[in-house]
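Mods, move this if it's the wrong board.
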Amino acid sequence: MEIHTADLCDSHEERVRVVEPMFGSFGGRPAFGGPIATLKVFEDNSLVRAELEGPGEGRVLVVDGGGSMRCALVGDQLALLGVKNGWAGVIVYGCIRDAKAIGEMDLGVFALGTHPKKSIKKGAGDRDIEVNFGGVVFAPGQYVYADEDGVIVSDSSLL
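Not the wrong board. Structure tokens:
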């Protein structure tokens, strides 16, 4: 499946919401998309691990990390879980680490940046709720598409 967000915006202008430009692409899969699963966490990646350990079924995990630039919420071990369990990608409103290794994996990974420090692990956060960043609300069951032109969200599949 080829994803071109510019073409999807042109074809479905009334159905898409465009996320403000803020993300860098770090995964080995530069274009990805699928149904959304959500997490809201802050400097704690316990729920990220738990979610990526489960079946991805081509979904994209959208992690609202509060925009924190003080630690990483995804590293190479969690990204590898995503690959093994069939996730299409991860979008992190926060940081990742192990960028070189993640760049060699067949997984889409967008994040605000990188940070070498790991997160705390207390199990705090929420899953399967609406999250809001970049001027867009992301809800479980909606669809997200990402490529070098940006990130878009739709209430239903565009492909």
